[in-house]
From TrEMBL:
Cofactor(s) needed by this chain: Mg(2+); Mn(2+)
Family the UniProt entry places it in: Belongs to the acetokinase family.
CDD domains from the UniProt entry: ASKHA_NBD_AcK_PK
Assembly and oligomerization: Homodimer.
Gene: ackA
Molecular-function annotations in GO: kinase activity
Pathway stated in the Swiss-Prot or TrEMBL entry: Metabolic intermediate biosynthesis; acetyl-CoA biosynthesis; acetyl-CoA from acetate: step 1/2
Protein keywords: ATP-binding, Cytoplasm, Kinase, Magnesium, Metal-binding, Nucleotide-binding, Transferase
Sites where the protein binds ATP: 20, 214-218, 288-290, 336-340
Record-linked Pfam families: Acetate_kinase (PF00871)
The protein, known as: Acetate kinase
Catalytic activity: acetate + ATP = acetyl phosphate + ADP
Length: 406
């Protein structure tokens, strides 16, 4: 690794109206600053900046921030106040989260005009995410044209899936013409967590098979054999698979024809229904697992049924990926629900003793932000809770790539 290029990496996660960021020092992977700009383009934009290196107070500001360019400049200003300005020679690179890299991007990639053009070409399969990610890249490039910008793709970890898992059973000519296949998402998290799980077991990633359950507001499962993804639950878009906060996950595709033909709904209405008004929220009016648990404790039946549907789907995927892998060393729970909701972990593996899966109630009840095993010592398969860290993974991949290229 070069000593001349600096050791800091700025990680940017640019959404349609938000910009999340973290500045890390890769000498020890420590976080120097983190923050978020929300409601970009509105009168009530909000910037929240946490100066972690100095241990100073969180700074919050409200007022109109017109676009991502203005947002990044505001972030740069905040960082300057901490002596961490983006003009510093200590900054080695900027790492960008990019949601859809299609089949083309299998690795983190240094951004140039051709890379931007390819991310643009993928907009039809990621109409919400890729344009926002590109805005972040363009803005950062304009601000520091001399600095390597690295795109880290949510889909990249899943490009190792065999065709048998990646293809839908439709005419391949039609599928190929429209680039329809199962891409999978949350790849950065699945990569990080599967590796961290192997580490927790004290084994090399090449030697372990892991089922990773990333249960946040969006949720996905993956089957990872020896460090390589062989199946994942999200597909062409993040709609497929598990029951999520507001997404339905799997359903009979004919439900869509039915809603259009019989229900008289437009395609846009159905899209909104399935992506934004379904899942836990659609079932019971809440998408936050904490609130759902509170309602269940109070005897609420709709919340109880929503929980049962969520867990039933989760259990089906554990069984499916067990079969895909043949032998399983660990099932790893991660993200907001996976890391915090002990009842979800308990219910997901309940009755699976025959597969070697169980949780130890005491271990499962412990709250911690450390990776840990919550199954009994004698269990054949480890059940693990492994906090995800997508920013660290993006920074690590970015720094490794920049080091390689210098
Ligand atoms: P995102 O997918 O938006 O990145 P997260 O991974 O942060 O989300 O997960 C957010 C979700 O995690 C919340 O909607 C909530 O359901 C769940 N969650 C967060 N904290 C807890 C907790 N203490 N107990 C149960 N669920 C939690």
């Amino acid at each position: 690794m070069t000593g001349t290029r600096g050791t800091r990496v700025l990680v940017l996660n640019s959404g349609s109206s938000s910009l999340k960021y973290q500045l890390l020092d890769m000498r020890d992977s420590s976080r120097l600053a983190a923050g978020l700009v929300e409601r970009i383009g509105e009168q009530t934009s909000r910037l929240k900046h946490t100066p972690l290196a100095s241990g100073g107070d969180v700074r919050e500001a409200e007022g109109p921030i017109a676009d991502h360019d203005a947002a990044l400049k505001a972030v740069a200003q905040e960082l300057s106040r901490d002596g961490l300005g983006l003009d510093s020679p200590d900054l080695a690179a900027i790492g960008h989260r990019v949601v859809h890299g299609g089949m083309f991007f299998t690795e983190p990639t240094v951004v140039d005009d051709a890379v931007i053009a390819e991310i643009e070409r993928l907009i039809p399969v990621a109409p919400l995410h890729n344009p926002a990610n590109l805005t972040g890249i363009r803005t950062a490039r304009a601000l520091r044209p001399d600095l390597p910008q690295v795109a880290v793709f949510d889909t990249a970890f899943h490009t190792t899936m065999p065709e048998s898992a990646a293809r839908y059973a439709i005419d391949p000519r039609i599928a190929d013409r429209h680039r329809i296949r199962r891409y999978g998402f949350h790849g950065t998290s699945h990569a990080y967590v599967s590796r961290a799980t192997a580490e927790l077991l004290g084994r090399a990633p090449e030697d372990v098979n892991v089922i990773v359950l990333h249960l946040g507001n969006g949720a996905s499962a993956s089957a990872v054999r020896g460090g390589r993804c062989v199946d994942t639950s999200m597909g062409l878009t993040p709609l497929e698979g598990l029951v999520m906060g507001t997404r339905s996950g799997d359903l009979d595709p004919a439900v869509i024809f039915h809603l259009a033909r019989v229900g008289g709904m437009s395609m846009d209405e159905i899209d909104t229904l399935l992506n934004k008004r379904s899942g836990l929220f659609g079932l019971c009016g809440d998408n936050d697992m904490r609130e759902i648990r509170r309602r269940i404790d109070g005897g609420d039946e709709a919340a109880s049924l929503a929980f049962d549907i969520y867990v039933h789907r989760l259990k089906k995927y554990i069984g499916a990926y067990y079969a895909v892998l043949g032998t399983v060393d660990a099932v790893a729970f991660t993200a907001g629900v996976g890391e915090n909701a002990a009842p979800v972990r308990e219910a997901a593996v309940a009755g699976l003793e025959g597969l070697g899966l169980a949780v130890d109630p005491e271990r499962n009840a412990v709250r911690s932000d450390r990776p840990r095993i919550v199954s009994p010592d004698a269990a054949r398969v480890a059940v693990a809770v492994v906090p995800t860290d997508e920013e660290l993974e993006i920074a690590t991949q970015t720094y490794a790539l920049v080091g390689k290229n210098t």
